[in-house]
Amino acid sequence: MDNFDYPARPRALTVSELNHQVRHLLETSFMQAWIEGELSSFSRPSSGHWYFTLKDSKCQVRCAMFRGFNQRIQPIPREGDLVRIRGKVSLYENRGDFQIIAEHMEPAGLGALQQAFEALKVKLGQEGLFAPERKRPIPFPPRHIGVVTSPTGAAIHDILSVLARRCPAVPVTLYPTAVQGQAATTDIVNAITLAQHHNKADVLIIGRGGGSLEDLWCFNEEAVARAIAQCAIPTVSAVGHEIDVTIADFVADLRAPTPSAAAEKVSPDQSEWLRRLADQEVRLRQAATRHTQRLQNQLQHLAARLRDPRRELQEKAQRLDDLEIRLLTTIRQRQDANRLDNQQARLLAQSPNRLLKTRMSEIEQLTTKLHQGVRRVLRQHQERFTHAAQTLHVVSPLATLDRGYAILQDSEGTIIRQVSQLNPGDQIRARVAEGSVTATVTNTTPNPS
Question: Which part of the chain is the OB-fold nucleic acid binding domain (predicted)?
Fold first, then answer.
């Protein structure tokens, strides 16, 4: 064979690679999209996922909605329903089927209603109609219950059945109204106004049974919301099933998931009350029995302590006699004391004490005068003695001593007047003014004649 250079063939994609790239291209090229169409080929396998086809008059597209998203959809759609879905464009690689992965589904036309719902919710919320501090407590137990609902619907039947079972003694007044359609909004507002004018009910249940969003829409109207917010009677919203949420639920003082639940919430359970009353009766009887027994014990104790009144009277009489005797004794003692006081007064009037006091005073005066006289006489004699001593001193030989003379005495004290009285060797004593001097005679010389 001739050798030829054939051009290199491009690498072929496998089907898996092709589908994977197409899927990646679709999912990255398209954002989430809203698609509206008629539901067909709807299936729900045991996995819980939904598989269906959306179609219009010309085309169709396969769709899948996984369990994590479809659990919130109520009610479950049916074959032939016109729906709107929000989802991502994708490809089921195993079969190469172009499909939409749905994340949300609602009946066609719901989008406008939902937008209106959200807008009104924001508006009334900003006005404070949903604020918790506006919520009033529901009176319990109520004296009178008012119900604003259809007189022919299942809601009034459920409410009356619950109330008849739980508290048949509480009166109920129905304020009939349409709960669906164009006239329902005005009817509901008028029924709420009428209930306030009657001024009978102290709690008002407002609601209806289940239905589609369109059926319940009158409870999302602004007029109804404002009528509930301005109602002077505490209100309970009981619209649809538990999954249904309306503007009325936000505005009312209390939301109940169903009409029956509303009746349960506002009414006391008669059987429970009877049970409590029976318990209270038993407790009251037991308490009364204990109290009676305690009083009986106290009575017996007091009876044992109670004394014979005759004995009490006797003791009182004896006590009275004692007091009488003591009183008479006291009176006699007082009389004796008065007589004694009189005698003492008379004795005091004749007592020598007064004379003795007078004489003692005189003696004290005389003693004072005597002392003064003695001192005066002694002073006079002292003066006379001093004068005489002075006179005596003038002529006294002692005065001569003061002038330098001396008195000589021998050893026996005899005054020596002549020299002849002395001999040499004699001891003599010379007395001078300020003392004496002892000397020995060595020579004697008599005066010449």
Answer: 13-106
